[in-house]
Every structure is written in C-alpha cells, then in structure tokens.
Design goal:
By secondary structure, this protein is α+β, with helices and mostly antiparallel strands. The protein folds into 3 domains: 39 residues; 118 residues, Orthogonal Bundle (Arc Repressor Mutant, subunit A); 169 residues. Helix content is 44%, strand content 16%. It contains 11 helices and 12 strands. The strands form 4 sheets. Strands 6-7-8-9-10 form a 5-stranded mixed beta sheet, with helices on both faces. A 3-stranded antiparallel beta sheet has the order 2-4-3. Strands 1-5 form a two-stranded antiparallel sheet. The longest helix has 22 residues. The N terminus is likely disordered.
C-alpha cells in the first residue's frame, strides 16, 4: 500500500518510500528537495522568532543583567568603548550576519592597544557567548566565525527582523562583504574620516534593486556614496550583468529624490569586488559595457570593479596604505586604466 507520509517543516515529504520507489530513489528525492528547501531558507529565512510577552520580558531582564541597552542597528561603523561596545557587536552582527574575530577587532577594538587587547576581546565575546547572544563556529585553525545566537535574534526581532535563514552556505559571501566594509572603515578612520553604512537587511530601496550593502565615506568634508556588490566567483558569469537594469531603473527614478533627501549631487557609485580571477572580472566589465552601449541610459551609473587578489597584493606591499580608497585598484567600463576612489 502506498505511503502518503508527512509534510516536513520545510515543505518536502519525509517518508522512506514514495509511490512505490525503492529506498535509494526515495532518499535521492528527499535529498534533492532538501537542497531546494535549504536554498529557499537562505533567501527568505524560515526560522521565525515569535515575540510573546514572556519572551519580551526575559529579553529585558537579560539586557539589564549584562548592562546592554539593546540599541537598534545604526548607520555608522564606529566602535565606542566600554559596555556600549557589546551593543555595537550585536548591532554589527545584525548588519553583517557573519563576522570573524578579526572583523570585530577592527570595528570595535581599534582604540584598545597593548597585550590586554586580545584578553579584552576574549572576555567580552565570552560574555555574549555564555548569555546566548551570539554563537560561533570554527572557520580555520586561527579564527572563529560569529553569528547571532538565540537571544541576539530575539533582539533583532524586537527591531522588526523576525525571519532568519541558515547563512552557512553564504559564509564566503558574507565574509567578503565584511572584509570590504571593515577595510573601508579602517582606511577612512586613518584618514580622519568615517564610514556610515547599512547592511542588506536595512536597505530601503524600491523595485528589484538589492545591493549587498550601501555606505557613505566622509573624509575632510568630501563624501562618496556607494553601493557594494560582492561576488564570490561561484555564480555563472552573466549573473551580475542581470543586476545592471535594476540599477539603471532605480537611478532614473530616484536620482532627484536622492539629491533632495540627502542633499548630495552625485548618485552613488557601484563597487564590485570579486574573489574570481582577472578573466572573470574582464567578463563582468565586458557585459556591463555591452548593456550600457545598448540601453543608452539617461542617468549613467558609475561602476568600479576590482578583485580580492588585487586588494591582497596591495595590502601585502604596504599594510598601512589605504588601498581601497587611495590605490589605483579599480577598473571601470570603457577604459584600460585603473583608478582610485579618492583623490
């Protein structure tokens, strides 16, 4: 007799046999459906945090016990000292999703020097780990990756983000975004400036435009707005080109609103950083050139491309130099030269 089975929490059947299939066929069917469901989870999130009165009350008690204010994620990337830093670590994980210890050190412990720095980082992260605010997973022999734990997700839910997906399959993508943003932050700070930024869950954009992050670099009164797109090299070559029409449509409809709302003349530049090789970068630029030639947009969106290999090479040559901002690492469409973002 045919087994109907039960519908699992992710929407796929979990019985051992389906429609008289063999155990091996059923296992393959379930594995394929699990992979589809996992991809959907990563995009939309299926873990929902329900804020009941009891959960809210316990959240308030736990915040009080650890001296946390429970701050909403802010559009800035400066790290204050003292207990406020624990709040900012949680806010940073709400923005970036996954961060290595080195990212946290750059963002929130830059004003702590000497031998006590590592001990301070370990002590404060241990407080958050013990309280269930964050969780960690081994990334390599030297570092852990940190994510929001249950109570960190409850805190995020109190600000409106109630669904969470499994980000582990997006680890390298999230870390590439964090690499870029923390590097920009440290370079701007060294130049007496700052970076105000927003993670993907905070961006309020219309239409289909969904950049990985947005930011504003300010140094000596000069400003550059940007969108960030991170490419791990795992997607097929034409994927990024499909985003070009979204940027053009958004720019055409929003440039006046952007200028009026933010009192800034120029529309943001689009920074594209790929872990792929130079040949992949060349293919991405070629596709953008082709689309720009065909569409003839009313508002020209400026794209800057570079690779993580270029960045790493420049940092190795001069670790103290602001490579992302001041080094000629960026390629642009219709030019064989390389450019700096600043200066």
């Amino acid at each position: 007799m045919e087994q109907k089975g039960e519908l699992g929490s992710k929407g796929y059947r979990t019985e051992e046999k389906q429609r008289g299939w063999s155990g091996r066929q059923a296992a393959r069917f379930n594995k394929e459906n699990e992979e589809v469901a996992r991809a959907v989870d990563n995009q939309y999130g299926t873990e929902q945090i329900r804020l009941t009165a009891a959960v809210r009350e316990e959240l308030s008690q736990r915040l009080h016990e650890l001296g946390l204010r429970g701050v909403e994620p802010e559009r800035r990337a400066t790290g204050p000292i003292g207990k406020e830093r624990l709040d900012l670590i949680l806010a940073g994980l709400m923005k970036y999703n996954q961060l290595k210890r080195s990212h946290l050190s750059t963002m929130y412990y830059y004003n702590t020097v000497g031998r006590g720095r590592d001990n301070l980082i370990s002590r404060e992260l241990s407080l958050l780990l013990a309280g269930g605010w964050i969780e960690r997973e081994r990334y390599n022999v030297r570092e852990y990756v940190y994510r929001l734990g249950y109570w960190g997700k409850v805190l995020a839910a109190s600000f409106g983000r109630t669904y969470f997906g499994d980000r582990r399959l997006l680890l390298e993508h999230d870390l590439l975004i964090a690499d870029c943003m923390t590097r920009l932050q440290s370079e701007a700070r060294a130049g007496g400036g700052r970076v105000d930024w927003s993670g993907e869950y905070e961006i309020e954009l219309t239409g289909e435009l969904r950049p990985d992050a947005t930011g504003l670099v300010t140094i000596s009164g000069e400003r550059v707005d940007f969108f960030l797109e991170a490419d791990t090299g795992s997607e097929r070559g034409g994927t990024f080109g499909q985003k070009y029409p979204n940027y053009v449509r958004y720019a055409a409809g929003a440039v006046e609103q952007w200028q009026r709302k933010f009192q800034r003349r120029d529309f943001p530049v689009v920074l594209v950083v790929t872990r792929g090789r130079e040949i992949r970068l060349a293919g991405m630029i070629e596709e953008i050139e082709s689309r720009m030639s065909i569409s003839k947009p009313a508002v020209v969106v400026r794209f800057y491309f570079t690779t993580s290999g270029r960045i790493e090479k420049a940092v190795a040559a001069d670790p103290d130099k602001g490579v992302l901002l001041f080094e000629q690492l960026w390629s642009v469409p219709f030019s064989s030269d390389r450019y700096a973002l600043w200066g």
